[in-house]
Design goal:
The complex is a heterodimer of chains A (405) and B (410). With 405 residues, chain A is α/β, with parallel strands linked by helices. Chain A has one domain: Peroxisomal Thiolase, Chain A, domain 1 (3-Layer(aba) Sandwich). In chain A, the strands form three sheets. Chain A has a ten-stranded mixed β-sheet with strand order 5-4-6-7-1-8-14-13-9-10, with helices on both faces. In chain A, strands 2-3 form a two-stranded antiparallel sheet. Chain A has a two-stranded antiparallel sheet with strand order 11-12. Chain A starts with a strand and ends with a strand. With 410 residues, chain B is an alpha/beta fold. Helices cover 35% and strands 20% of the residues of chain B. Chain B has 14 helices and 16 strands. In chain B, the strands form three sheets. Chain B has an eleven-stranded mixed β-sheet, with helices on both faces. Chain B has a three-stranded mixed β-sheet with strand order 2-3-7, with no helix packed on it. In chain B, strands 12-14 form a two-stranded antiparallel ribbon. The longest helix of chain B is centred in the C-terminal third of the chain and has 18 residues. The chains are: A alpha/beta (405), B alpha/beta (410).
Amino acid sequence: MKRAVVTGLGLMCALGHNKTDVWHNMVAGRCGISEVDLFDTSTYRTHTAGQVKGLDLRTHFSARTSRRMSRYDQIGLLAAREAVSDARLELTLENADRTAVIMGAGAGGMISAEQYRKKQLLTPGKLPRPSLLVSFESSVLTDAVGNEFGCRGPRQTVVTACSSSATAIGYGLDLVQNDEADIVIAGGSESLCELTYAGFNALRSVDPGPCRPFDLQRKGLNLGEGAGMLIIEEYDHARQRQAPMYVELLGYALSSDAYHMTAPEPAAIGAVNAMRWAIERAGLQKSDIDYISAHGTATRHNDLIEAKAINLVFAERANALPVSSPKSMIGHCLGAAGSIEAVILALTIYDGIVPPTINYATPDPAIELDCVPNESRHLEVRYALSNSFAFGGNNTCLVMGKIDA
Amino acid sequence: MPERVFITGLGAVSPLGLTLEDIWDRLETGRHPFGLLSGIETGPYKSHRGAEVGPFSCDGYIDPNLARRLDRVSQMSVIAAMKAVQDAGLDSVITESPRVGIVMGTGLGSTSYTDEFFVGLVQKGPASANPMLFPNTVPNAAASYISILLKLRGPNTTFSHKEISAEQAVAYALRQLKLGHADVLLVGGAEEISSFLFHAFSVTKSLAPRNPELPEMMMPYDRKRNGLVLGEGAAVLVLEREGHVRQRQGKVYAEILEAELASENVGIIGYHPQGRDLWQAIQKIRAKNPQSMDQIDLVSGGANSTTLLDQAEARVISNVNAETNRSIPLLALKSYTGCFHGGGALRLLLAVLIMQRNIVPPTTGLTDPLIQPGIDFVMTEKRAFPVSSVLHCATSYGGTSCAILLKKVT
C-alpha cells in the first residue's frame, strides 16, 4: 500500500479568505459569526451565520464564468487555487491522467437555483436566466476544478450533507493508497442559501447567538460557509518533486447510525464504529491519538452523543484527551465542514497548536471532555481524528498524523 | 490479490415495471415506456413525454405512517433495495451486521420536496417552513432511509455527478469491497421527474424535440436524434465479496470486474467530441485486465440521443473494435429507461438480465444510424447469442466518464 501525504492546503471561511488568515484568527480564538447579508433574514428567527465577507468574487472571475458558476463553485475554486499553488503543483501531460478530483458538497449550487426560482415566483411572465440552473448540480465544481488545472483522472462528487467532504478526502486516500492516483485534489465547498438557512431554523437547531459547543447552555448550531481543499499526494511522488509536506493521511472509515434522519443514535454505536474502524485502518491504537477535532455542532444531542462515543472509544483516557470544535468559530459549513476541519487539523498537527472551543462558559456535567476552552493550546499532536456526522446517520472519521511520527 | 465482487441481488421500481419478470418482458419485446407525462403540466413546453414509473405501493415495504413522510425518490429507493435484498436471499442476521452498507447515486434527490419546501418558504415565509420536508431535501435521504429501514450499519454514502451518479456509486462500492471494508454493499441510483426538474431540462434546451420537425423520442445513435427524453425510477444491486456469498451459498448473477473513471477538459457543460474521457476509462480497464477486453460480447452504450455524445461514443466504440479486431454489438439502453442522473444502476440491472437470458433487445428509436465505420448497432430486431461479458459505458457532461466491465461467472 502506498503512503499519502498532504502537500497543499486551501481554506476559506468566515475567519478569512486564505489559510494563513483563518489559522491566525483561529489560534487567537476569534469568532467569525456575524449578521447575514447574503440574503434578507429579517423574517427569520435568527439572523447570523459564519458568512464569508469582504470577498468580491467579480475580481476573481470573468463575467462569463460568474454567470455559469454559483457562489459554491467560485468559493471552492478559490480554495482549490490556493491549495494547488501552496503545493507548488504544476500539472503536465505526464501527471494529468494520474490526478483525481474528489469533491464533497452540501447544498451545492442551490443559491443560484433559488435566485432563479424566486424570480420565477415573484415576477411571473419574465423568464429568469436559465444558466442559473446549469450550476445547480454539485458536480459542476468538481469538473470546474478538473478543467482549471487540467486533471484527467477520476472525478467524483460526494453528497452526504455534513459529512460529504470528509468522505471525499477519505476516498482520495483510497485512490492514492491503492496506486490509482498520484495526486488528488480533495475537499468541499458550501455557500449559504435560504433552503438550508430556513431548514435548520425550521428544525429549531440554530442558536440565534454565537454557538457554544459542549457548553451546558448550548442552544444549537450556527450555519457557515466556505471551502477547504487538500492536495493529497503519493509520498514518493511528493518527495521526488521536493513538495512541502504537512501531514500524513493515515486512514478513514464510514459508518451508518441506521437510526433516524435528523437525530443521532442514543447508543452512539455509529459514531463509535467510525472512530474505531478509522483508527484500526490507520494501523494505530487508540492510545496513539493525541487530539480529536470534533463534529461539535453545539446542538444538544450531537454534543452529548459525540461525548458519549468518545468515552466509549477512549474509556479512561477520554477525559484527558483534548477535543475541540472549530465550528464554535466558523459555524457549521455543512458540505464543506469536513474538509475545512481537515485543513485546520493539518495545520494543528503541523504547527503543534490546538485550536480552542470558544464561547465556552458553563461545563455540562454530562460531557466530561477537555474541550480546550476559549484559548488555543501549544501541544505536540502526533496522531489525531476528525469527526463528521451527517443527516441520515452518515458518519465519517479521518485519521492524520505527523510525517514519520 | 483482492477478492472478487459479485452481483447477487437485483431490485427496481422502474418505468419498465416493478418486477424483474415484467422488466424483462418489456425489454425482450422491445417496448419502450415513453408516454405523455401524467404528473406534470407540460402545456407551456415544447416537450411532453417521459418514462414515468407507474403507480406503486409502499405496502409490505414501508410502514404507512412513515411512507407518507418519505419523498418519492426515497420511497422508490427503499422498495428497490428491499427487493434486491430479498432477491439475494440476505436475511436480517447478515444485513444488520456492521459489514453491510449502502452507496447510492442521484443527480439531485427529491427535487419535488426541495421545490415544495422552497416555494412554501418564498410564499409563506420562514415561520411556516415545513420541518418535515427539509430532511428529505438532502440528496443522501434515499440512502439514509435504506440504512435506517434495513438497519445497515456499514458504510453509507451517496454520489452525485450528473449522468454518471450511479456509476460513481458502483466504482466506490467496488473498491470498498475489494479492500475488504465491507462484505456486502447495496449500490443503486434513483431520480424522479418533478415539475421543477422538467422545467430545468426544458429551459436549458436539453430535451427532445430540439428540432420541432423531428419526433420527441429517444433515438440513440440515430441520424434524426434531437435531444433526450427524461426517465425516472430506482434500481439497486447487491454487491458481495466472493468469500461471503460462497459461504452462505447464495446465487450469483455476474461479476463486476472493473469500474474505471477518467476525465477530459471540456468546460462545465460539454462532451469531448472524440470521447477521450470514455476512451481513457476503457484503456484503464484494459491495463488492469488485458484479456477480458477481448472477450466482450456486448457494449451497453451511454448514448443519450444528443448529437454530440452519441457521435463521440460511437467513435470510441469504433476504436475499441479496431483495437480488438472485432465488431462488438452496441446497444443503447437509455432507449428503454430514458435519461436520469441516477439511471446507471437501472441500465446495469438490465445488462445483468441480458447476460442471464442471452437475448439482446433492439435499441428502440434507432432505424437510421449515424455514420461510423465498423459498428454493429443492435437495432430493430432482438438477437439471441451468448452474452458472457458486457462493457457498460457512461459519460457525463462536464467531461467525466465511467466504464464498467461485467462478466458471467461460470
